[in-house]
Amino acid sequence: MLCRLLILDDHLMLNQGLERLLNEQPDLQVLGQFGAGSELLAWLTQAGPAPADILLLDLHLPPPDGLTLLPQLRQQWPSLQVLVFSTDATPELMGRLAAAGASGFVSKAANADQLLLAIRAIYAGETAFPAYAAPAPNTKQVPRLSPREKEIVGLVRLGLTTSQIADKLSISELTVSTHRRNVMHKLELHNVAALVRFAHEKGL
């Protein structure tokens, strides 16, 4: 079964070169390439809930940038795995990307074989971060949160009130408060400001 790919990078020549490389592989198929996040979001909205398997995402984009897009993509299209393909490559960044939901990272300085290996690893259900990056220490708290808890933390980060979150998620205010209290207990946070700071650091 073909691995269906999308490319988001604002360098047209790079996109075209990547598309040719990937489409030459018998197990890979590029469905679309995009130069801006807004173009990708419009395409995904029209395409449905499971439009592709893996997105190759650059971080340096016209607003919204890749790091801003990443949690939104993972929330709205959870089946779409994200492989970040960028020039930045620090351990701190790897932690932020993993916390925001990325499945891997490949530097633009990597060779074609490294990129193909990462794509196939992610398609097989694995992660593909550089060995030196060690994102796990920065992300060990995130897996302790349920999808609903992560969703509520993300909305708290955006500044929504308990009532607004309840309306948005079609749940009661008591349920929102209970989830928030449980999250703060799990993460050993003592106030909402600390929760917002945590959400920002983890890209929730």
UniProtKB/TrEMBL annotation:
Ranges for domain HTH luxR-type: 138-203
PROSITE patterns according to UniProt: HTH_LUXR_1, HTH_LUXR_2, RESPONSE_REGULATORY
Annotated transmembrane regions: none
Keywords from the named record: DNA-binding, Phosphoprotein, Transcription, Transcription regulation
GO function term, MF aspect, one: DNA binding
The protein's name in its UniProt record: Response regulator transcription factor
SUPFAM superfamilies, A to Z: C-terminal effector domain of the bipartite response regulators, CheY-like
PANTHER family tied to this protein: NITRATE_NITRITE RESPONSE REGULATOR PROTEIN NARP, TWO-COMPONENT RESPONSE REGULATOR
Family annotation (Gene3D superfamilies): 3.40.50.2300, Winged helix-like DNA-binding domain superfamily/Winged helix DNA-binding domain (1.10.10.10)
Organism listed in the record: Hymenobacter telluris
4-aspartylphosphate, modified sites: D58
One GO term of the biological process aspect: regulation of DNA-templated transcription
Domain of life: Bacteria
InterPro entries, sorted: CheY-like_superfamily (IPR011006), NreC/VraR/RcsB-like_REC (IPR058245), Sig_transdc_resp-reg_C-effctor (IPR016032), Sig_transdc_resp-reg_receiver (IPR001789), Tscrpt_reg_LuxR_C (IPR000792), WalR-like (IPR039420), WH-like_DNA-bd_sf (IPR036388)
Domain Response regulatory: 4-123
